[in-house]
């Protein structure tokens, strides 16, 4: 029973980590897109 609890805890931790990483990745992609867009505007 105890091992099962720890296993579930590990799973929830992993899921939270994945969500965090995905969120940061999306933010980085958005930032790079905005920067490239601004550069294009400056070029034109």
Structural commentary:
The chain has 44 residues and is an all-alpha fold. It has one helix at residues 2-43. It is rod-shaped. The N and C termini lie far apart (65 Å). 0% of the residues are buried. The mean pLDDT is 86.
Brief overview, please?
This protein has one helix and no strands. The chain has 44 residues and is an all-alpha fold.
Helix tally equals 1
Question: Could you spell the SSE succession in H and E letters?
Answer: H
Structural class: mainly alpha
Outline type: rod-shaped
Our estimate of the beta-strand percent is under 5%
The beta-strand count equals 0
Q: Describe the biggest sheet?
A: none
Which value, in Å, is the CA radius of gyration? 19 Å
| Helical residues, percent | over 70%
Distance between the termini: 65 Å
Oligomer: single chain
Report low-confidence residues grouped into runs of 5 or more: none
| Arithmetic mean of pLDDT | 86
Protein name: Hypotheticial protein
Organism: Schistosoma japonicum (Blood fluke)
Keywords: Membrane, Transmembrane, Transmembrane helix
Transmembrane segments: 12-32
Q: Keywords, please?
A:
mainly alpha, 0% strand
What is the element layout, followed by pairings?
Blueprint lengths: L1 H42 L1
